[in-house]
From TrEMBL:
Gene3D superfamilies: NAD(P)-binding Rossmann-like Domain. One of its GO terms (molecular function) is oxidoreductase activity, acting on the CH-OH group of donors, NAD or NADP as acceptor. SUPFAM superfamilies: NAD(P)-binding Rossmann-fold domains. Residues 4-177 form the Ketoreductase domain. NCBIfam families: PRK12826.1-2. This is Beta-ketoacyl-ACP reductase. It comes from the Bacteria. Belongs to the short-chain dehydrogenases/reductases (SDR) family. It comes from Candidatus Lumbricidiphila eiseniae. It holds the Pfam family adh_short_C2. Keywords: Oxidoreductase.
Length: 235
């Protein structure tokens, strides 16, 4: 796998941190955006908020000066504001879309400038099984994650002729800080719905991301790859 300059948004914890660590382990030049905390050892951590275009511009300037133009972008930053539809405020809905969807648009737009010049790029959007499968209480989150698929496929048609691929990964339930605090009964119920009978590790998601960004996946674009233990199959 050719060593690349990689940017992961939201790379200070959870899946984003695992993705950064896997790219670092494979010898890439890695930067992560963080709003708080630090990135993993070996990564350049830059302060940025995907809802703030000016902060992203500043982050790209810093990354490009230190590591070179971004060749691989992983749009991972995301939030949830879960509640049932009739209790969901306009702000609950729009804030999730602004981070999860419009945030991805902002960072893809900025990264694509260098990719177009280089006639090479790998864009990976981190969606969710919820974007395909649906989930009560997550109308906002599901809408934002589902929309990433249309974004990736439109990017494929628009940028593909310049050597830029754009794909979506849809993780299912992952062993993270959020799932660790779930009550045992709830964890058991979730696991019963998963054909493989367990949650994934963040590293299992990260390895799919690095493969999709690598040389062997250069002819894959506009694809949605689930990492969900079979939970969302058929969707």
């Amino acid at each position: 796998m050719t060593a690349r300059t990689v940017l992961i948004t939201g790379g200070n914890r959870g899946i984003g941190r695992a993705i950064a660590e896997e790219f670092i382990a494979q010898g890439h030049r890695v930067a992560v955006t963080v709003r708080s905390g630090n990135g993993p050892t070996g990564a350049l951590a830059v302060r940025a908020d995907v809802t703030d275009g000016a902060s992203l511009d500043a982050a790209f300037v810093e990354i490009e000066a230190a590591l070179g133009p971004v060749e691989v972008l992983v749009a991972n930053a995301g939030i949830t504001r879960d509640t049932l539809l009739l209790r969901m405020s306009d702000e609950d809905f729009t804030s999730v879309l602004d981070t999860n969807l419009t945030g991805a648009f902002r960072v893809v737009k900025r990264a694509s400038k260098g990719m177009l010049k280089a006639r090479f790029g790998r864009i990976v959007l981190i969606s969710s099984v919820v974007g395909l499968y649906g989930s009560a209480g997550q109308v906002n989150y599901a809408a934002s994650k589902s929309a990433l698929i249309g974004m990736a496929r439109s990017l494929t048609r628009e940028l593909g002729s310049r050597g830029i691929t754009s794909n979506v990964i849809a993780p299912g339930f992952i062993e993270t800080e959020m799932t660790e605090v779930l009550p045992d009964e709830q964890r058991t119920d979730y696991q019963k719905a998963i054909p493989l009978g367990r949650f994934a590790t963040a590293t299992e998601v990260a390895k799919v991301v690095t493969w999709l960004a690598g040389d062997d996946a250069g002819y894959i674009s506009g694809a949605v790859i689930p990492v969900d233990g079979g939970l969302g199959m058929g969707h």
